[in-house]
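Quick illustration for those who missed Monday's session on complexes.
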Amino acid sequence: MTAGNVSKYVYTAIILFLLWIVLTSTFFWEEILAGLVLSAMVAAMGYSLFTDKGLGNFSPKRLAYFLVYIPVFLWDVIKANLDVAYRVLSPKMPIKPGIVEIHTDLKSDIAKLGLANSITLTPGTLTLDIDDDRLFIHWIYVRTTDIKEASEEIGGKFERYMKVIFE
Amino acid sequence: MIYYMAAAFLIAIGIYALMLKKNMIKMVIGLSLMDSGVNLLLISLGYINGGTAPILLNGVKPQEVVDPLPQALVLTNVVIGVSVTALALSVIIRVYKHYKTLNSDKVRDMKW
Amino acid sequence: MIKKSIALILIAILFVAIFFTLANDLPFGDNRTTTGVSDKYIYHGVNDTGASNLVTAIVVNYRGFDTLGEVTVLFVAATGVGAVLYNMGRPAGKKRKKTEASLIVRTGSRILFPMMLLFGAYIFVHGHLTPGGGFQGGAVIATAFLFKYVSDTRYHIDHNKFTATESVVGMTFALVGIMGLLLTGYFLFNFLPNGSPGELLSAGIIPIIYVAIGIKVGAELTGILDNMMEVEQ
Amino acid sequence: MNFYTVLEYIGMFLVFVGALFLFLGALGIFRLPDVYNRLQAGTKATTLGAFGAIIGIGLMRPEWLPKAILIAVFILMTNPISSHALARASYRRGIKLWDRSVVDRYGPYLREKEEKEGKR
Amino acid sequence: MVNIDPTLMIGIPLFMGFLIPSVAIVWKNSPRYLAGFTILFNLIASTLLLIRSLNAPVISVLGGWQPPYGIVFVAGPLGSMLALLISSMTMLTWFYLPPHIKEGNETKFYMLFILLMAGATGMVLTGDLFNLFVFTEITSIASFSLLAYSRGKDEKEAVEATIKYMIIGSLSSAFFLIGIALLYGATGTLNMADLASKIPSANHNLVMMALAMIITGLGIEAEMFPLNGWTPDAYTGATHPVSVMFASVVVKAGFFALIRVVFLIFGAATEALQILMIFGLLTLFVGESSALRQTDLKRMLAYSSIGQMGLLLVAFSLNNQTALVGGLYAMLNHAIAKGLLFMAAGSFIFALGTRDISALNGMGKRMPVTSALFTIGAFSIMGLPFFGGFISKIVIIAGSMQAGTEGMLVAILILSASLIELVYFLRVVHRIWMREPEDDSRLKEAPFTQMFPMIVLAAFVFLMGIYPQAFFKVLIPAAQELLRGLGTMIGGA
Amino acid sequence: MTFWIVCSGIVLVAVFLATVRAIAGPTVSDRLVAVDALTTITVALMVILGFIYGREIYLDVALVYAVLAFMGVLIVARYMEGGL
Amino acid sequence: MDYTAFIRPEYVLMLLFAGALITYFAGKYSSMARYSLSLLFSGLALLMVALLYGKNTLSVWTPSITPNGISMYVGTNPLTWFFAIILASLSFLTIMYSIPIMKGKRMENWFYTLTLLLMGSMLGVVFSSDLLSFFIFWEMMTLSSYLLVTLAGKRSDKAALNYMILSTMGAYSMLTGITMLYVHFGTTEFSLLSAQIPGTPVNFLWLSLGLVAVGFLVKSAALPFYVWAAPAYSEAPDGFTPLFSGALSKLGAYGLFLFMYVIVGMSALIGMGSFRGVSSFGYAIALLGSITAFIATLYAIREDDIKRLLAYSSVSQVGYILMGLGIGTSLSVAGSLYHALNHALFKTVLFMGAGAIIQLTGTRKMSEMGGLATRMPITFLTMLISIFSLAAIPMTSGFGSKWLIYEAAINKGFVFIAPLAFVASVGSFLYSFRLLQAVFLGQLPDGLKDAKDPSLLVTIPMIALTSITVLFAIVPGVPLGAIASAESYMGIQPIQVDSLFYFRIGNSFGAYNALVVMTILLFAMLVAMIMFAFAGSKSKKVDQHDTYLSGEIYEHHSDLGLHYAANFYRPIERMFEPYLRLRLERTYDAFGRGYELLSEGIRRVYSGDVQTYVYYVIGFLGMLIILAGWWW
Ligand code: NA
Ligand code: NA
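Prediction with sodium ion bound:
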């Protein structure tokens, strides 16, 4: 077992154990013990794919970015939701849908997933597919069909966070 | 009462699928529907007005809970239903391989 | 047409019969008989078995034998699916001729898979405390594996490992039953202390059985999925 | 007005907003013209709605909060995945865009890819 | 004397069922021997159980919860006898298996095989209605799987039969469960003895509705007309040893379940008995008449089985001791003789490559031993003297005569059906011995391992014909048990 | 109490609208979109009901339901694009 | 050592069953062993049966075999012995006769095994002293005789199957009746049963006795069950037919004697209703017997096939036996028993002779035979005497028995039975004459120029039986003595037998003195023969094909039906043609075919479509639900 794998395994086990604590919401020793055993067992079954970086994910910078990203993202989501709400409620339904292409510089799959999900969750845009660095986005109100512009408009902000958090 | 109605309705729908749908997958779905109906029937049998789930934690009193036995039976029956459905679908895969159809009318080499 | 009307008449008869029998003779909401057995479960279940979840108390303890039977049903069905679909799969090592899943789904499965496994484990470990149980937990575990299949056309399980796991947990369940017989003269007798209700290590043999069932069901359902996924159209 | 009461009111607010968004999402699904647009509404608004409602309940019952967050986060992680999968599958299955859609970059890409694979 | 707890007859097969696949990974041929060992265990256990239960019913409380709160196993003479029948027929079929199951996954076959036995054993021993449902499902699902096992030439028919059987079988289990639910709603209990004591005071409508559901549900398993559409296909499509298991084990357990529910729970409700009587007679005639015109050997045997099940239904619904003893005797005889017939037919078909009856011309010269064994089975089913079927026939007739004028009519109908049966079996036997074969070559007889079970069965057919007292020793208490009802046996709680 | 009635009422209207789409279609995808939304709504509703009845166990149910529903939609989607 | 300890009926049966088994295995390897063993076993059995004369035994031969602890009994008594000795001797002689006749035939080894088995089961039927063993042996007898018929190969298939089906039908009817008796009285042993009979409801007796009688009437080939007989007798292997017709056909009569007179008893029988002092039940039997005798005679007259002719003759003669049996007077019962004996003697000889001739000529058509009298003198002579006996020509024992039966019928003034019997008797004279004429007289066909008598193994049994026929004609007291004791066993007033040579039955009407009648008739015959001898030179010899050709000589075209024998009794046939066309066989065939057709329809219920089955299930449940609402 390489050092990288150990790191991945430990990271996975820790995340799973945290998940367990959240699930049980108790600190009885029995539950903790069960959580440790089960996390260790389950981690063994999935650690190799669960993470690319292993314990590297716990670097303070990443964590900090992650914590900042949450409110930023939520705010975007709420903003965009209001936008969609307006379009849905408006009797004329002011929509101008279409599928545009955008590009990303992200390399890691997990980062791309983060990006794609963020885009999807942000109302108005929906990730249809990813192929390498090309993302196809269904846009409820197409403002531009240019790849560069669209990339910045749709995913730019998220991409910057993702780059730090996952790469 | 609506539960009884729903249970009877599910059973009836299941039988409807069995009697009038030629597609064998739909027939199997009909069986599953019937099964759900039966499960619902069992659950509703054990209900008491104002009853709650029979888990005696957080100060729930025995008088307040619904009859746990039908629920236990349903748990068992659900698994049985899943098993049968899985097996039926696998068999249908093989039927399809040989007959190239799922129409029950056509799958009748053996008769009389 | 005649066929359809006959069908509809029969269905109507059945519907009316079932519904009105229930409605008239088992008035909804107040038919928990006091002469029946359930009062025993409701009033003494927690003391008898140590499980706060009375359904669990019944499923694993009072009527544990049904559950053993139910595990067997699933086992038989899984074996049956294997036997039915035997030799219908793709040749070893060949990938299924199917559209690949997108990167999003694939990557999603990488992250969610271990989490779902842990959910499953959580559910069957707490079976005696929550509405979950071995089957539900097992189903979640199988769902995790299903996610794998759905997101990766090359995915396949290690049959030997699964078989061995299934065997061990299955035998554990049977052995717990036989141990009860040997120790007390009753098959499936709860020979462990009940502990205090509500805690993880309570309810005697129930958690052991539920863990066994959980793993078994998970493996079993996964086996069924594997068999079905491997079928070459 | 103690801390818990405040939390409870915040929670109630969140639940109410959540419910509203659930309604908006459903309305979007009901009203919008094609699968893709409906997905837009369905994913976003309902996810946010559910998120709000669940967190809101968590705030009203703080001992449930961890589990509530877990559920909410799970929804947040899975809903975009399933929506994406649905959209992709719909497109590949040939479900057309709304006829007043303005641009389609995905169709040409798919044809191009098919040709490449066909050559191989 | 060693006592083996009846629950182990379920526990051990389950344990072994779980064990077999793992051991098979390292030792490929182990499933056969492990299965054989398991069956042997059950055989020994059921023999001991039968001996014990003749003195007093053996009651095994599962999990230590006294009835009606827990599940009980109640092994009276009747249940134990059936358990013994099941394990011994499974054992004999085990000998017969090898060449017939080569095409598929043998490990899985053996797992299903012992689980089928366990399921059927559970069906006859359990004293709890819902548990009966669970075991019925185990048995059914194992049967479905074994039925679909055929590969090669018969595969197409096997899967067709399986899907039919599955659809009808699942329908039956749904109705059975509705019946159970209604009974639970009416009485609040699932223990059979407890039910028996509570039903008289329970809501009559509910009980009757439950009865209708249960008769429909279990009638399918018991091959009652018109619920038996699946039967001929299943017998025909199954690989030969599985047909044997169907005729000798599965249907017997299903039939027993039906009878037990009607007799024990409903205290031999006269309405139910009338229904069983009428449909028993119909089953008898439809089965025998359909067999009359068959050109397919296995299908003919299948219809004959249906007819025999009808006979059993009639015998049991006569509801007097003589008829019950006769019915039980017929049940045993049919299990043994029809098992023998299916085995011999399997050997014929295996050697000839066709199920066509006309191919049997002159088989007496080409496969003399198998032909002789087939003939013995046929004679027993036909009810010729010195074979088991004779005794069962005359005892059933005697029983029906006790039922007054209607009984007389029943006797005449039974005998008329018996005449039809005689005709078509005679035609086959006649072909085998009296016709000249088209191809005079000797065919290879089955190997001794396969011959052995057939010879044992033939010996039993004879034994039943010439020394019936041995069997009456068990059957008379068994019939009395049925007549008495379970209610008085373990008295509710 | 009024609050819960109002909230439930809003959610029920949502359920109704989504159900209409689920029945009306017109394509399988449309129905599936509606079902997907319905499952999300249901999860939220379960949590709310758990609060109303004061039983934490509803949360466990909701979690399992969320997992299974997600997989359900995903499977159908993959099936539609020929990925199974 | 006291050998008499072994002279018990159960040992006879064991000997024969073991013998059958031994013969089968030994016979597989050596034909000599097969012949000698079967002769040995049957001979030994015959000897033991003979030594049983005058004994009365009853013993349990099995432990209880039913749930209620029924045991099985065998025993012997005068009635039993009378039938047993006939059966045993015929069996023995038939085996002897079969050795040359069956040589090299299909499944020869099985023939001997089955014959021994049949002998055992026939003796079992008469020895059994309870209902159950009676029925078991009866079934065994049916089965082994069925198998013997099928030995003839494919041509006998249909006949054998019909025989089996009808027999089984009869047996099941019998079983129903037997079970009624058992369930009503709680015992199966004959003497215990008969002790309980008085006071039994009449309806019950009618029903049970009627059901039982059906079985016997089938075996006796009485109306309306005779349809199996002609094909089965004629298609059976030649070695088996004599036994089949001579011995086996008597068991129906035995069964009737047993149930009517031994078990139910005369008084209870009369109690069931009577007609001119004869029990109604018996009258019905007698009536059936007489009609059977009449109709079968008509068929026999038409037959060209020698075995079929004899077969119909058997049916007709058994009809006489039933007639006497049914009337139930001292005279008629004696006649019936006596006729059973006579028929066994002469019909066996006739079938043996026919078998020998068929083997020789390779045909069963009488129209292809002729002129064999000189080539086969022994066969001719034995058959001639038997034919006389069959035709009841005075001076033969056949005359005596028929005379007794007529007299009984006339005595009772049965205006229907007596004339029928008389006409039948005339008929039997007609076909006997045809047989005689067609086979032995006239010209010899070209193929048969070097025909000669069969081997000693064939002729010895024929001579032996013929000698007995002749002997009993002279000393009727010997058989009648045995008959008288059988009658007294049955509770019927026995006929008086004064001495071996002379008997006289006193009654209100008159007396029959065998010696006197015989002497007178013998004298008349002599006169006739002398007249024929004198006139012989004046008679013209006519070719057998000369019937319709006005003396013009044609080539022999027997296939044109121009042979003398082909339309021998054309005028009589023409008379009955319309009635004979309504053959009962057609009805049975139509029923059989109809049922098969019905079955073909019934099995369409299994349509193969699972959905249909779902309809059945739901329909069934719907019906139950409706019933549940309606009945309950
Ligand atoms: Na649980
Ligand atoms: Na979702």
